[in-house]
Specification:
single chain, two-stranded antiparallel ribbon, disordered C terminus
Length: 470
Amino acid sequence: MDTTALLLSRIQFAFTISFHIIFPAFTIGLAAWLAVLEALFLKTGRPAYRIVFEFWLKIFGVAFGLGVVSGIVMAFQFGTNWSVLSKMSGPIQGPLLSYETFTAFTLEATFFGVLVYGRTRVPPWFYLFSTAMVALGTTFSAFWIMVNNSWMQVPVGYVLENGAFVPNNWTRIVFNSVVWSRFPHMLLAAYLTGAFCVAATGAWYLLRKMYHAEAHIMLRMGLFLAAVLVPAQIFFGHLNGDYIHEYQPAKFAAIEGRWHDEQPAGEVLIAIPDSTAETNWYEVKIPILGSIIGSMSLTSKEVGLTDFPPQDRPPVLIPFFTFRIMVGCGLVMLGLAWLGSYLSLKGGLERSRLLLWLIFSSFPLPFIATLTGWYTAEVGRQPWVVYGVLRTADAMTPFLTTRAATISLVVFCAVYTFIFSFGTLYIYQLLRAGPAGYLIEPPSAAVPNRPMSLASEGVAPKHTYADAGE
């Protein structure tokens, strides 16, 4: 086995999935919010809801396209860099990825076309139904991916036959007990990402004294949603900790920075773990709290990393710090959401420019929290790719060379950086342009295979709202 090729393959997978995950994390929440906006527009008839919907639909379309393009690469990597994993887990992972295609991609592709081209061609109720189906499709996508990943974290419902994991209980695989804490945790992360991006955009427009009615809709709805969802996210995060504590004790010990058994166990708030010395430097610790968090007990014994052979321990430094970054981002988001919602209800949010600046600056937080949460889960799972039964080193393509791995890594980094730069720049330009002050209905001659018919000379807007805040 080429250890350098293994390292490069792991870096490549980490890079591509880090790039990819930020787009589904954004679009899943945004799709659900678009459905809410369309429902509010139909119920109230308020033009500002429609204007905000059309504005965010453009951004959703760009981000959705970037997510699809970057996601395609993930499947190819299983064959190029991780062929042993593909061969052994294909009977399980192959069908799960197919289920995502049959459910999620079918709904998204079909009804997204209606959102783009169907406003004047379908009844309003069907357009609303289409927005809901796109949101449902993105949710299905998250569900099947989390089922797949949860099986790798806690493999169940299989037998090993001829060197392959063969399913013998699909119910246990699909309804794996850990899915019901991990899937809501990921879904809430996506909703929070959308909520904070929307709220940050609203704060930006208020700071610039632009699009007053639309900015208030974005800011208030984003903050109110986040104020409700952050506590729920913390609860499901605790449930995730429970499954790690039960099924992956080495990962749990790494996250806690606990090297030796403790009874009762303290909680390490911050430290610098040293794997060589098997100790923590500059440790700040709260007695007993570790037992409360781990086992809801004041006296429980919590295991340390030295209980496991060195070859079965995960790298400690990464999950230890990424977990704390994730929690820190969550607490900051909770404070901003609650304070912003309170001031919004009191009518004083717009006058607090400092808080508006803080909310505007908060838009990276949910992305950082999502990425660090994934790093905690995936790096903490090491040295296993399928926990407890298949090591990452044994899952790599055996004939993969350092040269091939280097070329593919460089190409992926270059292409992804190019796509990300232009995609981000285009989204930024859409944000700077802001929501239109009027609505343009496409003419009846506009068809999907002639999108430029929207720009035909002499076409006038059918509906113009001089007052977007009407």
